[in-house]
Design goal:
Blueprint lengths: L11 H18 L3 H18 L8 H17 L3 H17 L9 H20 L3 H21 L5 H9 L2 E3 L5 E6 L5 E6 L24 E5 L7 E5 L51 H22 L3 H19 L3 H5 L4 H12 L3 H18 L4 H21 L3 H21 L1 H21 L3 H21 L1 H21 L7 H12 L10 H17 L3 H17 L6
Antiparallel strand pairs: 1-2, 2-3, 4-5
Helix pairs in contact: 1-2, 2-3, 3-4, 3-5, 4-5, 5-6, 8-9, 8-11, 9-11, 11-12, 11-13, 12-13, 13-14, 13-15, 14-15, 15-16, 16-17, 17-18, 17-19, 18-20, 19-20
């Protein structure tokens, strides 16, 4: 809930904080979540400076800003981080409870929203015991508002229902569950009060099957109206051209994995952090099969060099998937998650970069929403989609934003590689290389070097096990290391990895058409010039000769 400033006290700084919150909200609504987060964090720090430690003036405004920060982090899938500002928001609201003359209804509503958001976040993380006191606090605040201004509780009732909860007759908060006949009924109350299927409902709002775009408003007479638009979260990240190339390998993510079902459109979050595990019936199975066929058709068209024609079947699959996801929770949404990822791939191949970003962002959002419900199914797809999101952002020049999803992808692939090294070490090396590029583009060169060194270590291990299969990857990784060292002005260290890459190139019997020869040649050309500028003339000459030989031996396009 927002508290709009009236211009007293902090003057221009107070107005700045309010403007930053509004800007953050607008950016979030248009999918620019990382930029939104920056604005909201700036607003929180400004609000913090405006709090009067003596009389507490400004504490309510700080609480509101902290709640906004927690909501934004939650919408970005960062629930653990969201708990910190959400709990701080509730604590700040509690400190205002003893204010002379009591609190305004709008402030009580803000407190209730913060408590409910904290409880819901804890519930989504499986920490039900910690969540219950926050739900009880929200319910008690709802009761207090009812006694003072009954009409002002409408927005709270709507908010509870929007997220799959309801107020019980006894004044508690209960989650809705889906019964076998397709209707909904209240589950065990989250605050420990009595309730259950037979408890009368005090709210006229019906829990929606999925979250759309809904604006809730609420204010008592004389209070300022507080508004917040709930939307399906979108992220928007970035890549640049430095004075030298960022990498010798391709910055683009690998083509989406084949096999497995597909996904689109955001489904409603599960009421209690548990997905609806009811499998789709026969009609639903036929629909999912059609979605799978459309995905396969789209990918086949893209693989045959016709990505423009691939957009139509994948767009149809996305629309069908959104319809299938309504009301089925994780069982309906998770099997559909690959569709926007595939659509992003073919849109990027068609040069539709902004639309590609929108599609892959939807894939990431869906995966994050259902990660708790079906971690083993969702985690691999989230790892791929996050890597793709980083690349899509980079292509549009959003380098700072691209780092977060690339980092997330690397972390997820590390988990997979630890569980199954033989299957996933190569993929981990690939996403680490992409992370290195993202960090380099964001001018975080020391971190980029660390990611490249980790990738190189994996490539060396793979090459020792199977030299012929993994020699190209090792050459790319060595060139990347040389580039990272050059960017850190460690000029005398550049020659060794460059010379090793050149030596390995001599033993490369055949260059596969899928190998990115142009990028490797560009990197080695730049490294040759760099070595010459810094007095390594022999190494520079060997590198330049290797580039000429590489280009001469490269397969012709289409062969």
């Amino acid at each position: 809930m927002r508290s709009h400033e009236k211009g007293n006290g902090g003057g221009s700084r107070s107005e700045l904080a309010g403007a930053l919150l509004v800007l953050g909200s607008r950016l979030a609504e248009t999918g620019h979540h990382h930029e939104a987060l920056d604005r909201i964090e700036e607003a929180v720090e400004t609000r913090r400076l405006l709090v009067d430690r003596a009389d507490g003036t400004g504490r309510t405004e700080l609480a509101s800003a902290l709640q906004e920060l927690g909501v934004e982090l939650g919408e970005m899938g960062r629930q653990e981080e969201a708990l910190v500002p959400l709990r701080a928001s509730v604590a700040a609201y509690r400190e205002t409870a003893g204010a002379a003359g009591g609190r305004a209804v709008g402030d009580l509503g803000g407190h209730a929203v913060a408590a409910f958001a904290t409880g819901r976040t804890l519930l989504g993380l499986g920490r039900t015991g910690e969540a219950r006191p926050y739900f009880a606090e929200a319910a008690a605040l709802h009761t207090e508002i009812t006694t003072r201004e009954p009409a002002a509780t409408a927005f709270l009732d709507h908010l509870f229902a929007l997220h799959g909860h309801r107020l019980t007759y006894e004044g508690g908060i209960a989650a809705w569950t889906r019964t076998p006949d397709g209707t909904t009924s209240p589950d065990r109350p989250e605050d420990g009060t009595s309730g259950g299927p037979n408890a009368p409902d005090r709210s006229d709002a019906t829990p929606p099957a999925r979250t759309g775009t809904t604006t809730w408003t609420g204010a008592a007479a004389g209070d300022e109206t507080a508004t917040r638009t709930e939307t399906s979260a979108r992220i928007v990240p970035t890549a640049s051209v430095e004075d030298g190339p960022t990498a010798s390998g391709p910055a683009e993510p690998a083509a989406p994995g084949r096999g497995g079902p597909t996904i689109p459109g955001p489904a409603a979050p599960a009421a209690s952090g548990q997905g609806d595990s009811t499998p789709p019936g026969p009609a639903g199975s036929a629909l999912f099969e059609r979605i799978d066929r459309l995905n396969a058709q789209g990918l086949a068209l893209a693989d045959s060099g016709r990505p423009g024609l691939a957009v139509e079947p994948l767009t149809e699959a996305l629309a069908l998937g959104r319809a299938a996801a309504v009301g089925t929770g994780a069982a309906g949404a998770v099997p559909l998650a690959r569709t926007p990822h595939h659509l992003a791939f073919v849109r990027a191949r068609s040069g539709r970069r902004a639309e590609a970003l929108e599609a892959v962002d939807e894939a990431v959002h869906l995966c994050r929403r259902h990660l708790v419900d079906a971690p083993e199914t969702v985690r691999p797809l989230l790892a791929d989609a996050a890597d793709s999101l980083g690349s899509r952002l980079a292509v549009l020049g959003r380098h700072r934003d691209a780092v977060a999803p690339a980092t997330e992808s690397a972390a997820l692939f590390r988990q997979r590689a630890r569980a199954d090294p033989a299957a996933y070490r190569g993929e981990l090396a690939r996403v680490l290389n992409n992370l290195s590029i993202r960090l380099c583009d964001a001018d975080r060169h020391a971190e980029a070097l660390a990611a490249t060194e980790e990738s190189l270590e994996i490539h060396r291990s793979l090459h020792r096990e199977d030299p012929a299969a993994h020699l190209p990857g090792l050459v790319h990784a060595l060139a990347d290391l040389a580039l990272r060292l050059a960017r850190l002005d460690r000029h005398d260290e550049v020659a060794a990895p460059t010379a090793e890459a050149v030596r390995h190139l001599r033993h490369l019997d055949r260059i596969h058409p899928n190998n990115d020869v142009a990028a490797l040649a560009e990197s080695l050309t730049w490294l040759g010039r760099h070595l010459r500028r810094h007095g390594h003339r022999d190494a520079a000459r060997d590198t330049e000769r290797a580039v000429g030989e590489l280009r001469r031996r490269a397969p012709e396009p289409g062969r």
